[in-house]
Amino acid sequence: MDAFWKAPPVSRTLALAAFTTSALVYSGILSGAWVVLYYSSLFKFPPQLWRLLTSFLVTGPKFGILLDPYFLFTYGSALEVNAPRLNQPGDFFVYLVFCATVILSICIPLGSVIFTPGISFPSPCFLGPKTHSVSTSSALVLAITYTYAQENRGRKVTLYFITIPIEWLPYALILLTFLLDGPPSALQQGSGLVAAHLYDFLTKIYPAFGTKDGRSYIRTPAFVRRRFAGLGGRPTGPITRSYGTAYTARSQTAQERPGPQPSRGFATGFSGLWNSRGPGRRLGE
């Protein structure tokens, strides 16, 4: 239990919730009809809004019950602890909320669903009279995988005994889903790729090349930072890695922010140094 509580808070909670929910559903203890996403259930009274959350907690069957929570925990923990863009308390939580919102925004209108074998329910969307249950967990796994790959560009990863650049991993997973489960499942899973790339664009690409101040368009609210500040997960000291030592970024206090500072003896910096030397002279004068 100590190892569990020392793990990053968001990743450990998400992985545990996904494993527990999936195990209950596939064992028959919990009816999947109460946790999968139905399009019509969101527009009835009262709306069953919990499905927007629980649809991300139902993984694939069989090995998916173990593999999906494993990916959520492994890649999620790496982002929550080490990702430079997610270096403040609550940043990873906001990242998950953003990706989940984009995934649902794509899947609900288009009706692209995961065909979950073994559980058959009425259609969750308006595109067909009968389909299988819908779960969006694989799309969230792919979103986290894509972001992890972008943060670790240049590395290699082994997928089913084949070593590939880690940047190819998300696309390899979509290809496997296309071959094993068909186009609808691959299309639904691909929504996670769109969500992660949109986050990458709004927090890294466009701020770097399309704005003057380089500010990210997605920011963690102050109340979320305060809520996650004491939960741990990201180390506050130096991180020792195989290629050197990394230091976690932190917010500057008012005293640490750049600005006019009172003089303290000998001038520092090029501007103060030259101003303290008096008028200049040309060569030969």
Give a concise summary.
The protein is mainly α and 285 residues long. Helix content is 47%, strand content 6%. It has a two-stranded antiparallel sheet. It has a two-stranded antiparallel sheet with strand order 3-4.
Q: How does the SSE layout of this entry go?
A:
Blueprint: H1 2-6, H2 9-26, H3 51-54, H4 64-82, H5 91-110, H6 137-151, E1 156-159, E2 162-165, H7 169-181, H8 183-209, H9 222-228, E3 238-241, E4 244-247, H10 269-275
Antiparallel strand pairs: 1-2, 3-4
Helix pairs in contact: 2-4, 4-6, 5-6, 5-8, 6-7, 6-8, 7-8
What this model shows, in words?
47% of the residues lie in helices and 6% in strands. Helix 6 (137-151) runs antiparallel to helix 7 (169-181). Strands 1-2 form a two-stranded antiparallel ribbon. It has a two-stranded antiparallel sheet with strand order 3-4. Mean pLDDT is 75; it is low at 112-133 and 239-278. The chain has ten helices and four strands. A hairpin with a 2-residue loop joins strand 3 (238-241) and strand 4 (244-247). The protein is globular, with a radius of gyration of 24 Å. It is mainly α and 285 residues long. The longest helix has 27 residues, at 183-209. The N and C termini lie far apart (79 Å).
List its traits:
285 residues, mainly alpha, two-stranded antiparallel sheet, two-stranded antiparallel ribbon, 6% strand, globular
